[in-house]
Amino acid sequence: MAGNDFNISIMNGSQNGTATAPPTNPLAVANQVVISTSLVILMVGMGCTMTLNEVWKNLRRPTGIIIGACCQFIIMPFLGWSLAHIVQLSPEMAIGTVAIATCPGGAFSNVLTYWTKGDTVLSICMTTCSTVIGIGMMPLNLYIYTRSWADAAAVIPYLDIVIALCILVFPCALGMFILKKWPRAAEIIAKVASVVTMGAILCVITIISIINPKIYVTSWKPFVIVFVYPISAFCLGYLIPWALRQDAPRCRTIAFETGVQNGALALTIINLMISRGLDTTFIFQMMVVPSLHTIFVVSEFLTVCAVYRLYWKRKDKLKDIEEKKLKEIPPEWMPGTLPPSATEKSVIQPVGEIGRASCRERV
After folding, report:
1. How far is residue 79 from each of residues 41, 176, 219, measured CA to CA in Å?
2. Model's pTM, two decimal places?
3. How much is the CA Rg of the chain, to the nearest whole Å?
4. 361 has a pLDDT exceeding 50
5. What pLDDT, in 10s, does the model give residues 53-66?
6. Nearest to 228 by CA among 80, 329, 104, 115
7. Beta bridge partners of 105
8. How far, in Å, CA of 165 to CA of 155, rounded?
9. Which of 182, 243, 283, 289 is most enclosed, with most CB atoms within 10 A?
C-alpha cells in the first residue's frame, strides 16, 4: 500500500452514523489518570512560580508567544512532513508523524523550562496560547500535510482541547493564589511538583511500553524520525528567537516549547479512528511514531536538561572557588593595591639595602 492508495475518511461518528466506543484497556485508563493528575499537580507548581503582573507583561508584549506559535504551527508541521518523505515512511506512520507535528506544545516543556532556569511564565503563556490556536491550526495543518498519503478530514477532539485548557489555566491560577498568600509554601510546592512530574513521566513511559510492546520491534525508520525530530525542533526553536535578538532564557523557553508536542493529544486523535471502522492494524501503525516520540522526547530533553544543569553547577563551583581565593587574599593585596611582587621590591629590598649600608658605616 503506497501513495494515495491509503485512502481514509474520518468523520464525526462511525460510518453508519453511530459512534461506538473504542475498547477500554485498564492500563490505558490508568495512563490517562496518571497524565491528568500529574498535569494538575505540575500546573499548580508552575503557578507557584509566577505572578499576575508577569503574565500580563508577556501578554502585553507577546513577542515570544508569537515567535513560539510560528515555530509550532508553521515550521514543525513542515519539518514532520519533510522527515516522513525523506525517510519514506509508510502512509500510516507518516500520518502519525504529521499528527504529532501539528499538535500544540505540551506541559512537559514547562517543567523543562523551570529546571533550566528559563522564562517559566512565558512557557506557560505559550502552552496556553498554542492550545487555543491549535483549535484552528490543527485541522488546517492536518488537511494540508496529510494529502500526500490520504484524503482525510480528521476529527479534532475539541472536548479534549478544552479539558487541556482547563487543566492548564485553573490549577495555574490556584498556584498563583498560593504564591500571593503563602510565598514559602509556594516555593516548596513548586519543587515537589517538579519531582512528582518526573515520577509520573517515568510511569507513563512504562505503561506505554507495556501497552504497545510491538512499537520497539518495528522498522528502523520510525526510530530515525523520533530521534531526529525533537533535536531538530529544539535547535530551530532556539536559533530563530536568537536571530530575532531574544535573550538566552527566552530562547531556551521557546526551544523547549517548540520541541515538546502534546503527544497525548495526537494519540487521542488516532484513538478516535478506532470507532470509525478502521482496521486496528492501521491504527497501530499510526500510533507507532507518536508513542515512540513521547518516549524519545522525554529521554532526549532530560539529557539536555541534565547537561545544562551539570554545566552551570560546574560553572558555579568554579565561581565559588574564585570568590574563596579572593577572600583569602590580604586586604593590601586586593585589586587596586600593590601586588606582593611590587611590595617585596619596594619595601623589603630597600630595607635590606638600608641594613647593608648601615653595616658598612659601622665597619
Report:
1. 32, 36, 21
2. 0.73
3. 28
4. no
5. 888 888 888 899 99
6. 80
7. 261
8. 18
9. 289
